[in-house]
Amino acid sequence: MYYQLLLPTVTHCCDLGVRIVSDLSSTQYISEIVSKAHLRANCIVRSFSSGDIHLLGRAFIVYVRPIVEYNSVIWSPVAKHDIELVGKVQHFTTRLRGLRNLSYCDRLTKLGLCTLELRRLHLDLLYCNKIVFGLVNVNFDDFFALSTNTNTRGHKYKLFKPRYTASIRQKFFVDRVIMSGTHHHLLQILHL
Q1: Which among 16, 49, 113, 181 counts the fewest CB atoms within 10 Å?
Q2: Could you tell me if residue 181 is inside a domain?
Q3: CB 90 within 8 A of CB 84
Q4: Global pTM?
């Protein structure tokens, strides 16, 4: 006797704390982590009796930034709206004493912070570097191919950009790193 089992259709799943949606959009996940990060940033501002901006900046780095950087190689935003939404997490700096009237860039400079978009780019490039040089247990050929173009000067680690017909590929780590135009700086990133 055979029983027919119907598998339920799911539109998303959670793996290692990251929500993966069937259309590979990270908007819903980004909304969740941004909400959590804002709550934690507000808690820091309310909980610390010290007005020392460097102490509060350090608390942000330790308690808030990991929320919006955890596994960002997988979910890094592509849409402008999502990039701005994640970036607004650092706008808590307007609530710090003496920084309210400064521009966003000046506030970040004063606290020794960089934009979250730049942090995600660094994380992407560092993970790319680990794959290229075999520092993680990931097969290089599953992600990248080296360029066979010998007409240009430089190092031997230039990455080849294959052509895809599906625009969904732009959301993937591999294409994001190559399209950033900074993959030729991998060796320089090592020395930062």
Answers
A1: 49
A2: yes
A3: no
A4: 0.77
